[in-house]
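Propose amino acids for all 134 sites.
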């Protein structure tokens, strides 16, 4: 059986690209870098269909890595709260927060959410990720 998860992006801002990840009963917020022409470490990845594989984030905790992203490498799901944490990767969190007075955007409870995401994927070593923009 092929596992399919999806991210639906709904907001593109200078402070990041925001979306929702869906995985059969589990969902969470996502945060990525703004679109900067798919440049390594500083841009979100293009919308599309990707294979993901279980790995670990710098040897510190389990995660999933995206494979065969055109002109990119080392793209992972990992913990973090602001685009300063992304390194061109996909951050997961419980909810979005916006402080319009200070023009700050972030996601909350990333560590807990990453653990829940990995638990939701516990029976899978690989899956398909579909990223769509609204």
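Proposal:
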């Amino acid at each position: 059986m092929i596992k399919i998860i999806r991210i639906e992006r709904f907001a593109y801002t200078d402070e990041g690209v925001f979306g929702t990840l869906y995985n059969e009963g589990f969902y969470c917020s996502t945060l990525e870098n703004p679109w900067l022409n798919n440049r390594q470490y500083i841009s979100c990845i293009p919308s599309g269909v990707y294979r993901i594989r279980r790995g670990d984030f710098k040897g510190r905790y389990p995660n999933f890595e995206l494979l065969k992203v055109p002109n990119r490498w080392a793209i992972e799901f990992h913990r973090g709260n602001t685009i300063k944490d992304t390194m061109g990767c996909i951050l997961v969190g419980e909810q979005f927060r916006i402080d319009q007075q200070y023009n700050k955007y972030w996601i909350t409870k990333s560590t807990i959410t990453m653990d829940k995401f990995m638990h939701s994927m516990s029976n899978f070593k690989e899956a398909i990720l579909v990223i769509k923009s609204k």
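The chain has one domain: 4-133. The chain is about 10% helix and 50% strand.
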